[in-house]
Design a protein that fits this description.
- The chain is α/β, with parallel strands linked by helices and about 525 residues long.
- The strands form three sheets. It has a ten-stranded mixed β-sheet with strand order 7-6-5-4-8-1-9-10-2-11, with helices on both faces.
- Helix 5 runs parallel beside helix 14.
- The two termini are about 20 Å apart.
- The relative contact order is 0.19.
- Bound molecules: calcium ion.
- Calcium ion binds next to loops.
Amino acid sequence: MGMLGSAVVTAGSMVYLAKRKRPNIVWIFSDDHAYQAIGAYGGRLQGLNPTPNIDRLARSGMRFDRFYVGNSICAPSRATLLTGKHSHLHGKQTNDGGFDHNQQTFPKIMQQSGYQTAMVGKIHLRGDQQGFDYWDVLPGQGSYYQPDFVGKDGTKRVDGYVSDVITDRSLKWLDEDRDASKPFMLMIHHKAPHRSWCPAIRHLEKYDDVEIPYPETLFDDYASRTTAAHQQDMTIENTMYRNDLKIKSHAERDEMFEKMKNSDYEPWGERGAYYRMTAEQREAWDNHYDPRNQEFLDAELTGEALVKWKYQRYLKDYLRCIYGVDENIGRVMDYLAENELTDNTIIMYSSDQGFFLGEHGWFDKRFMYKESFRTPFIVSWPGVIEPGSVNTDLCQNIDWAETFLDLARAPIPEDMQGESLLPLFKGQHPTSWRNALYYHYYEYPSVHDVRRHEGVVDKRFKLIRFYGPDVPDGEEWELFDLDLDPNEMTNIYNDPIQSHRITRMKQELQRLREYYNVPPDSI
Ligand code: CA
């Protein structure tokens, strides 16, 4: 889109890449993988070595440190990655309702330009997928054990743990079914580590004897924040249920089990996961959780001790799921190396948004606060990207579609709203690169009770406007100085010293609304 002059970038890229064959792209993606849970991003969990293979990818390529989403929730984020547009233009503003698959998407254009395209795993946009020579996707949220897959030939159930099976089927396509005369774009999109964070049985004991470090903001009291932070429903303390924590009694679980046999009762939760396990898997599951649950019930914890126990159970299961994704990323990297595909294949890793891992006392996402707004993005491209490099330009998930098209030397439609990241991959920092990002979350009233909000961020300040139902006086504002207050604990919107800055940031917000064609009736 106009800010950078994509025609110039494309021409430059053509010169640079003229001698190279068009690259293959392996686009590995997960669901709700917080950057805090990636070793290469540092932070409090780094010492647990949660992601040795993703770290290996980062060492061979580029880590993006200011990569953000436009709407921190699953389906809208995935619609953005396909279309290169913010939610109000692709029409998927919340998880409810359908996605219009007939609209323009980048896989369709890549296909037209001679790429073979494939999508395996979670897309969370129901209906027949378009723009893919091969698609093999999880229905809805998908299941952790013995998952169903939907493809052109209907639905089938496949034995195994979901992250392993998605990888098996991706490698099978690479090995047996693709047309080796064409470049390919393969999307390997994982369900893990999405709630209810069910690990592979082989990882149940991992981190068992470790105390997971706590975030500084676990017991945030939201003192200077607006109504939205006070009245959400996503705390570990109050909202994380026994189902999430796997502490249902056998009797309760058996009752649900019976219920599920006669209905389509929540197929993706821990209950659904248990229902789909083999007898052997259930036995291993019970052998792990039962004694630990009994110990917990006997202890009768309350207050901070209870929150800490829940945090430990949550983080251990979450990190076990991450470890399963990471192992499978290693399998893909090894496959590419063994089949001499490494040299001309770009491998990318990211997630549909970030996630709160106890920061502010929360789990889930949705807010424009950094843990959910920011998402991990790591790219390896031998011979082009400098190994071990780090980019800190402001980037957003609207940029992916144009980047793929630029890599494919395919035409980039004018109505896509991002920028190609290709110059950044090459280590350039174009002076015309954007200096602010727009964000807009729409799903309220809904699960977790996060108020509607929009906002603008630059490299130093973040301005958020909460609006709509249940926001006092129709709107409330927050301003954060990200240099002085990186954890976003102190809202300085009401500090008179900030008045000029607030005026400037509000002008920037209005400029971005106009630039991205945000309809006035949605703000
Ligand atoms: Ca998600």
